[in-house]
Each structure stands twice: as structure tokens, then as C-alpha cells.
User: Fold this.
Amino acid sequence: MFSSGDRVRTSRADPAHHTRVPRYARGAVGSVVEPIGEHPLPDDRARGVTTVEPVYTVRFSARELFGEGDHDVTVDVWESHLESA
Assistant:
């Protein structure tokens, strides 16, 4: 489980199946804004499996994601796609 303020890195995986991690955010480092509850993992649901896990709003700098920009971007990310940074 992660808490608000924790620094995290998103998964770099590019699976052959559906994933909810946007390509532009893969492997990026950000910080958890807040946990937003437990929800079914769409990656599994697309394959007919129901897995429920925690989801977090994660804030990334635009520079981290796109190489430029002075703003932040938030993305909701399932726990299995995060690791401590």
C-alpha cells in the first residue's frame, strides 16, 4: 500500500493485452496524491478475470512525462503498476 506523498515509479511493461497505464507515463516517477479506493483492474477484466486492487492518483511533472512543460499531470494508477521510487 502507498500513502500520500510516496514517490512511485510506474511499470515499464508493454503487455500484449490491455493495460490502463498510458504509454506516456510508463516508467515515470511521480508522487501519490491520494488513494482513491479499490476498483476492478481493467487489464484483467478485459480478459474475463475480476481482480480488485487499490488505485492511486499520482502526480507527475510534465517535464518527467514529456520532456518539457511547467505543469503537473495526474493519472489514476492501479497498485500492481506501481513500485516505490
